[in-house]
Design brief:
By secondary structure, this protein is α/β, with parallel strands linked by helices. It is built from 23 helices and ten strands. Helix 15 links the parallel strand 5 and strand 6. It is globular, with a radius of gyration of 28 Å.
Length: 608
């Protein structure tokens, strides 16, 4: 465990010092992070909270994303807001303080490169070819899975364990990759039957698809070397697969399966509902590409490193078999029979279970042994509960948890008038913040979900839908007398609208603002005939003149997002630092924040 001592990690005093700075800044700026853009026009939020022009905010945001921030002493925050009006008046100081109070600028993170380099110096075995994971995952998921799995596999080697518990496994991309790439025994636990059933089916198809693709590629390669007559080869060749193309057209010369399936499912989806596998056959013919050797290497590179028992082995079609000699056919047959007899010990097991901090893992996993616990973008309270399970279960030797969906976190002190002392809450976890009865609030936690780096490159902020919703709220108030919003399950009055969170789904299904308003009002149970199309359009035109205020205000919230996220993650790190028998705990920046905005992992390792 001496290697851990070489990793960069802030001291506990440094963590607490940074948290104090964050608490001061977030308390001061709560009027911005805690404001809900739904009420932007009804509560006149811009006028009440901001004393600078929208244009200056938008200009400042653009300039700041092009500049590189240098570490310096803590900025002076006394003049950011006017003591008389409580409005934001010093934009430059606001931005400087926001950037200062971020994880990377505070120097509180360990880089993934630093950790992997340490592990690499300890390994005797080296990784083989670079894996072309974009053949079965979209770019974002591939980026996340490859990087995180390298860290998890390294941790498993340090502790000499072969079992991994993936909490909130979802569709099983990380679990599948860990089991097949690194020969690990992975249990993927998800509360959704839909996700688990989908993961099982996807895993089954994925194994067959990989093996058939591998067999076709290798057979074709051998045939090309031994026979130059193109007429003997199948027309399709093994190419790099783009996950955004369509697999709907498979000809008779394409790969076929034996067993109960006559061919690869045309609707097979191994990435997501919107990205599907593809055959590059037509594009190859269009470009005149008749040299498959390079693409063959890249396509087979992932398959070459799979353990022997990781895939099911179907036979290939006659169109491929006819280029094999009788001896080769017999050899293939014996290999297939042998492979089918192997137990699927390396294929991960999706399980359905709702996991809390009190969950007894032995009730879910009968053969539980020493394991590494992981979670890739675990939602809400599952991320902090992952850390609690890690601490409480002696079988868990290390944890790597990347949380998301901060707006779903439960907060112990969010409603101080209620008795919330009992139970386990998503925030705060640390005794350090519990003693202060600190709470963030739902709107601020929603702000923490914003992605500064993505917004900086023109992504990730649904400005149009936010504008629609804010103007809709004006209509609700002025025409229908609905003056408040509530997430309570019990109505407090007839004027409290309780289904606000469902409105967002209507935007993508609407052809215009008028259509959006009418669909929303019907969903609220209101009579939309009280408004004519002309009246609805007049609302849109009136507030379109102030749309830049809404855009500018959301940029201010984007500036604050990394600060709120920093407090949530530092709370989790502090919780771990308060425990005993841990060798190392830190925050690791795993991913490119543009590709994957929730890019920080909480990593902790127990003493041997």
């Amino acid at each position: 465990m001496e290697m851990f001592a070489r990793w960069t990690a802030p001291t506990t005093d440094k963590v607490q010092e940074s948290m104090e700075s964050l608490l001061q800044f977030l308390e001061m700026t709560a009027q911005i992070s805690g404001a809900h853009t739904v009420e932007f026009y009804t509560e006149d939020i811009w006028k009440n909270h901001v004393g600078v022009s929208p244009e200056s905010v938008l200009s400042m945001f653009s300039q700041q994303q092009k500049s590189h921030y240098q570490f310096r002493d803590a900025p002076d925050m006394t003049g950011i807001f006017s003591p008389a009006t409580n409005q934001l008046v010093n934009l430059e100081s606001f931005v400087e303080a926001a950037r200062y109070n971020s994880l990377m600028n505070l120097g509180l993170c360990t880089t993934i490169d630093e950790i992997l380099e340490t592990f690499a110096s300890q390994r005797t075995d080296k990784l083989g070819k670079k894996i072309k994971t974009d053949q079965f995952m979209n770019d974002k998921k591939s980026h996340e899975v490859v990087i995180m799995s390298q860290l998890v596999e390294s941790l498993a080697k340090v502790y000499g364990v072969k079992q991994v518990i993936d909490l909130g496994a979802g569709k099983g991309y990380l679990s599948s990759y860990l089991s097949m790439r690194y020969d690990l025994k992975v249990y993927g636990i998800d509360s959704s039957h839909t996700n688990t059933d989908g993961a099982n089916e996807r895993n089954r198809k994925l194994k067959k698809y990989w093996q058939v693709y591998k067999t076709d590629a290798r057979t074709t390669s051998k045939a090309q070397k031994s026979n130059q007559k193109k007429g003997l080869l199948p027309k399709s060749s093994c190419q790099d697969v783009n996950a955004n193309q369509d697999i709907a057209r498979l000809s008779g010369s394409d790969i076929r399966l034996s067993d109960s399936e006559s061919h690869i499912d045309n609707d097979i989806s191994l990435t997501s509902d919107s990205s599907k596998w593809a055959s590059n056959k037509e594009s190859n013919q269009a470009t005149g590409d008749t040299e498959p050797d390079d693409s063959l290497d890249s396509a087979v590179s992932f398959l070459d490193i799979l353990p022997a028992g990781a895939v099911e082995v179907p036979s290939v079609s006659q169109s491929i078999s006819k280029v094999l000699s009788e001896q080769e056919k017999e050899q293939k047959k014996m290999e297939n029979i042998k492979a089918k007899k192997l137990p699927e010990s390396h294929v991960y097991s999706p399980l359905t279970s709702y996991v809390t901090a009190d969950t007894e893992l032995h009730d879910i996993i009968t053969d539980l042994e020493e394991s590494i616990m992981v979670g890739l973008h675990t939602c809400g309270d599952l991320a902090p509960n992952t850390l609690r399970i890690f601490i409480s279960k002696p079988e868990m030797k290390a944890v790597c948890s990347v949380g998301c969906c901060y707006h779903f976190l439960s907060e112990q002190f969010e409603r101080l008038e209620e008795d919330r002392t009992e139970g386990l809450w998503g925030f705060p976890m640390s005794q350090y913040l519990k003693e202060r009865c600190w709470h963030i609030g739902r709107n601020a936690r929603m702000s923490a979900c914003l992605a500064l780096e993505r917004v900086a490159v023109g992504q990730g902020l649904p400005t149009e839908s936010l504008f629609y919703r804010a103007v809709l709220q004006v209509i609700c108030k002025e025409v229908y007398g609905i003056t408040q919003r509530s997430y309570s399950l019990v109505p407090q009055s007839k004027n409290i609208l309780q289904i606000d969170q469902r409105v967002g789904k209507i935007f993508s299904k609407s052809s215009s603002f008028t259509d959006y308003v009418r669909k929303s009002l019907k969903k609220f149970g209101q009579d939309d005939s009280r408004l004519s199309d002309k009246e609805i359009i007049s609302y849109y035109e009136k507030y379109a003149l102030r749309r830049n205020e809404l855009e500018a205000f959301n940029r201010l919230k984007v500036f604050l997002a990394p600060c709120i996220e920093a407090l949530i993650l530092l709370d989790r790190l502090s919780y771990l630092r308060e425990q005993e028998n841990l060798a190392w705990s830190g925050l690791v920046k795993l991913f490119d924040p543009v590709k994957s905005p929730r890019c920080y992992a909480v990593v902790s390792l127990k003493r041997p």
